[in-house]
Specification:
Number of strands: 12
Number of helices: 7
Largest sheet: 5 strands, mixed
Low-confidence stretches: 1-36, 248-252
Order of helices and strands: HEEEEHEHEHEEEEHHEEH
Shape: elongated
Helix content: 40-55%
CATH class of one domain: Alpha Beta
Structural class: alpha+beta
CATH architecture of one domain: 3-Layer(aba) Sandwich
Strand order of the largest sheet: 6-5-4-9-10
Oligomer: single chain
Length: 295
Amino acid sequence: MNSVRTVATAVLLLALLTVGQVAYGQGVPSNIGTSATTMPRQLQNVGFEPQLNAQIPPDLSFVDESGNAVHLGDYFKQKPVVLAFVYYGCPMLCNQVEQGVVGSLRMLSFTPGRDYEVVFVSFDPRESPDMAAQKKKAALGHFNRPETADGWHFLTGTKENIDAATKAANFRYTFDAKTNLFAHASGIMLLTPDGRISRYFYGVEFPGRDMRLGLVDASAGKIGTPIDHVLLFCYQYDPSTATYSAAILKIVRLGGMLTILCIVGGILIFRRRETAQSANRRAQTIGDFHGRGAH
């Protein structure tokens, strides 16, 4: 009787715990956080949601850090492009993005100007080439490879061309006249050599592995080592998280293929040894036979 009561009590407690967990799960909404309608007005139209394979218009006109008129298409040639929207007078976030790009690229063996191009575009039409030149100087100082200067580009432009470029990348920002500051998101894009969005990363820090794999992806395999291509087989890009993650199924398949190759290789080696041993035994037998015949 006591055992029956004990079992019944345990079942009742388990049921209560299960109901409690369900009720808690139902009581906590999945979209916890400030809704768009209650966000500050300055942030309601801020975002960065690039679309993979979207084309960045190559014919948009800008001015580089030397005061030369350029088109974005001037950088869309045979190399992938690292593209970031910033503004050079930004007191904090843009500086962190620039430092994040420099720090990540510094870890790679790829060389700006030879393997890829780096392009920063200011979305503040009031900024000048002199400000862009100062930012380039600071970036090259941190990158510590002055011979790569031709691979770094800091652009300024008119509102019309800035709006067209940021719209193509779905990069949205607002300007607060009271503070004289822009509210904006942070992130970078990796473009194919013809200027289409291949990969994008959010935030201000960009892991070297993701940056390297992204550049190899964007180049369609034109840069990188055989190991990079193996890693691309084992890692896949997830647009929802803007990161590379391990492709478990592909890794299992690769492991299976390697196992089969090892087994086949082992069998071939064993057969070769067995064949060699058989040939040696036959040669020895023939030698013994001729030796007895001579006597």
